[in-house]
Structures are given as structure tokens and as C-alpha cells.
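Re: the 332-residue chain
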Amino acid sequence: MSSPILPEMKVLVVIPCLNEARHIKPLLLNLAESRGNHDMLIVVSDGGSTDGTPEIVATLAAEIPGLALIDNPQRIQSAAINRAVERFGDDRDVLIRIDAHGDYPADYCQVLMLEAADTGADSVVVGMKTVGVGAFQRATAAAQNSKLGNGGSKHRDGADGQWIDHGHHALMRIAAFRAVGGYDETFSHNEDAELDFRLRQAGYRIWMTGKTFMTYYPRSSPGSLFRQYLGYGRGRARNLLKHHAVPKLRQALPLMVMPAVVGALLAVIHWVAAVPVVAWAFLCLAYGVWMAVRERNPEGVLAAMAAMIMHAAWSTGFWLELIARRKGRAAA
């Protein structure tokens, strides 16, 4: 079978990274090999790595044509991509965002380009297949791949090709990216969903492809998972406040976790106050047992505990951001 003919697109691949010495070399080698003769500039936007990542990239740049390294003093991913597009985007047609801490099929970029050409989409997003190595990471992966952990989010579940409101960012036409102002650099988390909101408001279309995906490796400890989802919760609150939107049902349900936890403190007055948090914990653990039995997943119960960490952190981050904003307005 002959290979599909790639559309005539000049591609800018951007890899935001921070301390990715373990992953950056194989990732860059795979990208360089898979692009073939296509016009594809690869830019690593480094946020101040101290583990030797910039030195690895600089060494490879001498061997791989079309590979560049730039600094990202703001460290966050939104700024990393904006800086790369500002510097290299003038003669490029599309942007492909690659996460340094992930794995990709060999034809990942090619499939994205073909999907953009075939659908006419302004943005092509992908599903995420989450996998883990150690016990807690495997449990977190199981949680994030389940409705208990992702609420049925299509870019977590994966889906057949369809038009969608938001998904994991993969390819975007640079004209559309620039027309809406790129990523909002005040967002350290949830910057992708915030940009998707502005894209849709401006009339641009987002296509969820079912023809490729990325593999994601979640946090490997309870503390790092909590901090990650705390940031996600803050980012979601900022997004909703900025655009005067309301959370979807799958987002609203976890929001009740922290109020339930706080309310449980009143159980010293009456036991009924503990009912919501006990019910939440019971349902999560029951789902974990179901996973262990039905899916024969030995990490099922631990996955339920990982999901509870995600729920609690996301809810906490959301309410902390909401309270901080209200205090800020009151002070003003």
C-alpha cells in the first residue's frame, strides 16, 4: 500500500519542556525520522531546565536539520508556545503542539496534517491514552481513563472523528491561533480549554480525530497528583470567570467535594453533616471495586483513591480561585 500524499503545509512543531532530559532525545529523534522530507521545523521551548535538557537539544541541533532551541523565561507552556509562534510562525501554516512527557505514533504529525486537509478544520485535537509504570501511576492512569476520573470527557475517552468544543491540543492553523491572540499567558493550567473557547467564539472549528492519539504518563505520587489537579481547578475557575460561563454537569459534580468535606466538620454537631462526604467516598470506592472485579484490574481500589485525590484537589483549586477573585474585587 502506498503512503498517503501529505498536503503542502509548512509545519511548526513546538515542544514546551522543563527538565525532560530523560525523554527529550528519543522524542526528537523520532520526530526527525518520521517527518521525512516534509517541511517541518521543530522548536524546543525550554523553561529553564537544570537537568541537562538544553545541552542535549543543542547537541542534537548540530545533527538534526530544522531543530531549534529557545528560552522560555516564563516557564509555563502557554508562554512557551506563544514565543515559538512569534519567532518562527511567519512563514509556517500550522502549529503542532508536542508534550515532552508523552509518546506518539510514528505517523502522528502526518495524520494530523491529513485530517486538517480533509476536514478543513482550524484545529485538530486528539484523544489521550493514559498509562503508568509503578503501582500508583498505573492506578492514576486507570482513574484518568475511567468515567470516575474524567467524567466522560471525550479527549480522555477517545472518540471517533467528530466536531467538538475542546480536546487535547495537537494541530492548529497559525492564522487562527494568531487571530484570537494565542494562549492567554496568565493561565498556567487550562490554557488549552480557554483558547478553545475563544476559537469557537470567533467561528473557528475544532475536529476530534479518531485516527491517532497520544500516550500520556500521569503523576506518580499522591502529592504531585494533588498539586496538578489543584492547578487544573484554579485554571477552570479562571476560565469560567473570564468568559462568564457555567460549568458542565461533569465538572459541577466534583465541585461539590470540597464543600462536602468542609461541611463534614459539622458532624460534631450532627452526624447528618457527614453524609455527603461519606456517600462520595463510598461511591468512589464502590466504583473501584467494580473496576477490580469487572475489568480484572488489580489497581481498581487504588484507582478509586487516586480519583478521590483528583476530585478533592480540583474542587479545592476551583473554590480557592473563586474566593481569591472575590477578595480581590472587594479590595479594589
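The radius of gyration is 21 Å.
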